[in-house]
Amino acid sequence: MIASRPIDVAGRFVGVAVSHATGWRFRAVDPVVDDLDGATFPSPAEAARVARLVAARTQDWAQQPGPASTH
Q1: For the whole model, what pTM was predicted?
Q2: How far apart are CA 21 and CA 39, in angstroms?
Q3: Cβ atoms of residues 9 and 54 within 8 Å
Q4: Would you write out the chain's pLDDT as a tens digit for each of its 71 residues?
């Protein structure tokens, strides 16, 4: 059975962790974390931790609208 966990950073949905034979594979839905797309992590919590670090490297990330925004 495939399991998945949504990953959000500061209340913004950025991707999903999907169970995989070797751990949890991250699928990005927000361009700010595209670098992580396809990466494998030991847990959804680790995927979320790394996603927060990647998002934090973008200075104005908090001010950017999410991908589903109509602005």
Answers
A1: 0.79
A2: 13
A3: no
A4: 889 999 999 999 999 999 999 999 999 999 999 999 999 999 999 999 999 999 998 856 555 666 554 44
